[in-house]
Design a protein that fits this description.
It is a single chain. The protein has 177 residues and is an alpha/beta fold. It has a single domain, classed as Rossmann fold (3-Layer(aba) Sandwich). It contains five helices and six strands.
């Protein structure tokens, strides 16, 4: 069974949002193009309280139950099977989808006998990176769909991709799925 994990494709991380990733909305077309190729689709969302230590480091973004925390409107949400919420306690944790507070992703993937995880989303240098590294630590074969992720800074993205490769993540094109 192939599993797609969509990391934080939320309004606040897309152009016009509180913590926008340049061209972050461009990942939506790629995700919608590949989403039907997976038997299981999971999406994570930052879901922060309105205050807390996380906002000592970052501008206020993805506050629970706000338009900024909502998934991008063009994303095929009806094809998502499971929604993970992270960053819900106000601390500066919750970057990785494996830190979700409503569902234990590691247990879920083991229960579903998932061995390979395909990752897309925002932002490459932060939540996507943390999720990929945690997935490898959980014994999964991890594929990062390069056209399905965007980062904040091109130079840091290149470094992040190299770091992910060194950690065992396979960087692939959506055409190779």
């Amino acid at each position: 069974m192939k599993c797609l994990l969509i990391v934080d494709v939320q309004n606040d991380f897309c152009p016009g949002g509180a913590l926008a990733v340049p061209d972050g909305d461009k990942v939506v077309d790629i995700i919608n193009l590949i989403i039907d190729k997976f038997e299981l689709v999971i999406s994570s969302q930052d879901w922060h309280p309105s205050s807390g230590a996380h906002f000592d480091r970052w501008p206020i973004h993805c506050v629970a139950n706000t338009e900024g925390a909502a998934l991008h409107p063009a994303l095929s949400k009806e094809k998502i099977d499971i929604f993970l919420l992270k960053g819900t306690d106000g601390s500066d944790t919750g970057y990785s989808a494996f830190e979700a507070t409503n569902i234990n992703l590691s247990d879920l993937l083991k229960y579903r006998n998932i061995k390979s995880l395909y990752v897309t989303g925002l932002a490459t240098e932060y939540c996507v990176k943390a999720t990929c590294i945690d997935a490898v630590k959980n014994g999964l074969e991890v594929f990062l769909v390069k056209e399905g992720t965007k980062g904040i800074d091109d130079e840091n993205c290149k470094k992040t991709l190299e770091e992910l490769k060194k950690n065992g993540v396979k960087i692939i094109s959506y055409k190779d799925i």
